[in-house]
Amino acid sequence: MLDELKWSYLTGTGTEYGLQNWGNNELQYYREENAVLDTGYLFITAKKESVGGKSYTSARIHTINKGDLDLLQDRIQGEDARGEGIDGGCVDATHR
Question: Between the CA atoms of 59, 64, 69 and 74, what dihedral angle is there, to the nearest 10 degrees?
Answer without folding.
Answer: 30
